[in-house]
């Protein structure tokens, strides 16, 4: 996506969890704990992938995109389909996206990545930078974790 920026990749953390699991230091019940909300989000807003679940290996993983940001008002924390994100990115200045992978079979779930989207990402291309300076006047409230 064009305005995507500040990407944080969580594949190292995921591999660490899988290693712990293989070593028997944690059990599948620790990691296969997708909430009913997350499973619903996967069913209705999820993006199917062609990657097999690393735990049960019988289902393909589904990616759920959660959106956060003050501009979203009451929509903050909701799941959106991937197709909706570019539209939002052209409407809003900045919002955070958390991508969570979920297995519909065994309830494995893990954070995949997070990134920012929004029109502010276009500032370097077209608009002059004055606007982004004004945006720094307010302190955004931070939500550090995606809702499980
Ligand atoms: Zn699974």
TrEMBL record:
Region (Disordered): 126-148
A Pfam family per the record: DUF5318
Superkingdom in the source lineage: Bacteria
Entry protein name: DUF5318 domain-containing protein
Organism of origin: Micromonospora tulbaghiae
């Amino acid at each position: 996506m064009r305005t995507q920026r500040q990407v944080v990749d969580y594949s190292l953390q995921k591999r660490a969890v899988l290693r712990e699991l293989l070593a028997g230091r944690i059990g599948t019940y620790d990691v296969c704990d997708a909430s009913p909300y997350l499973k619903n989000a996967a069913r209705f807003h999820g993006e199917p992938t062609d990657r097999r679940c690393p735990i049960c290996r019988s289902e393909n993983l589904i990616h759920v995109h959660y959106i956060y940001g003050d501009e979203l008002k009451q929509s903050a924390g909701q799941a959106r389909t991937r197709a909706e994100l570019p539209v939002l990115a052209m409407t809003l200045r900045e919002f955070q996206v958390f991508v969570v992978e979920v297995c519909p079979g065994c309830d494995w779930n893990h954070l995949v990545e997070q990134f920012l989207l929004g029109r502010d990402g276009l500032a370097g291309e077209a608009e002059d930078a004055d606007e982004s300076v004004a945006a720094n006047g307010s302190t955004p409230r931070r939500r550090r974790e995606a809702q499980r």
